[in-house]
């Protein structure tokens, strides 16, 4: 009888839902060519790269993954010129979070695939979050000259609660949200592997690949920190995709992004 009562009690407890994934539009990069990405004009018709931000809502907290373009781009009434192209950003990520009733202080964790300006543009706004950072990414950003890193965008992290990790990291301890180390684009580049109850497993690419052609042709951008590391990371991630059955979302792929549900809608 005691066993039956215990079983009934367990059955009456609410089932803990799995994580939710929210997708935000955090800018657009318009380019004249893809030469920097080691792609010739005939290799790909792509000339626009979307810049997403992601929010993972888990029973144990919220995680922001990637911080989009800097705020000054969102504040500009006109496209912001860069060498070989321009930047556009319609609404700042904090304004988009506000639509969901969230402020920066509601974000428990922040992680960035890497610290290039188009992935860490909002980093200084989330210094009250616990920052999950590969030690080697931190060291390279603040002690070495790295292209496409604007230190002013991440300077605030020096006052943040930074939890350094070395390699893969299980964010919430249950295997549903994992940072996957894949160096080469930058020294501490990482991806995010999610296991959603309905949608299944999704792997957010960071900048392992920038376009579908990058993946198909195995092209390493000319500005990557380590070409051979990049190839090794490509091999490791392709093996992981086969092993887990996860779907790879190439973050900058606008053709994919245009098909995705955007916040406040979500994937679960």
UniProtKB/TrEMBL annotation:
Pfam families: Lactamase_B
Secreted as UniProt keyword: no
Signal peptide (from-to): 1-17
Database matches in SUPFAM superfamilies: Metallo-hydrolase/oxidoreductase (SSF56281)
Cofactors demanded by this protein: Zn(2+)
Stated family: Belongs to the metallo-beta-lactamase superfamily.
KW Signal (keyword) present: yes
Alphabetized SMART domains for the sequence: Lactamase_B
Keyword annotations: Hydrolase, Metal-binding, Signal, Zinc
Domain Metallo-beta-lactamase, first and last residues per copy: 50-252
Taxonomic lineage of the native organism: Bacteria, Pseudomonadati, Pseudomonadota, Gammaproteobacteria, Cellvibrionales
Protein name (database record): N-acyl homoserine lactonase family protein
GO molecular function: hydrolase activity; metal ion binding
